Amino acid sequence: MKSCLPALAFALIVVAGCTTTPPPEPAPQPERLSQQVARTTLEKAQQAYDEGDYAKALSTLKSGGVSVFEAAEPSTRLDAMKLEAFSYCVANQIAECRLQFRKILDAFPTFELNVAERKHPVWGPAFEAAKRMKR
């Protein structure tokens, strides 16, 4: 039995040395620069909106031009377009609000406001009017 121990130990070392460890997880890819710019612009506009400065929210959304959000991920682009529509609505620029909702529906045909948003006294009716214009 003693003569088998060195062979057994050697076999265990060889087997242990043959096991492969899984490859490391790939490093997360850096976010595209265009997406970073779009997110930063959207965050600044959202902050202005939250502070009640709707004119600043609109100017921030438009500061980078359409191209800032055109190259962004669809969810970021939609959020920016929706914030622009809401900003027009609360700034009492109803025609621009409806037009922005039409642009959203052109880009995202299945878009719907959530229940609470549909009940808003200004942008709920503006959105419904945009939907009717779309037909």
TrEMBL record:
Keywords: Signal. The keyword Signal applies. Residues 1-16 form the signal peptide. InterPro entries: TssQ-like (IPR047780). NCBIfam families: TssQ_fam. This is Lipoprotein. The lineage of its organism: Bacteria, Pseudomonadati, Pseudomonadota, Betaproteobacteria, Burkholderiales.
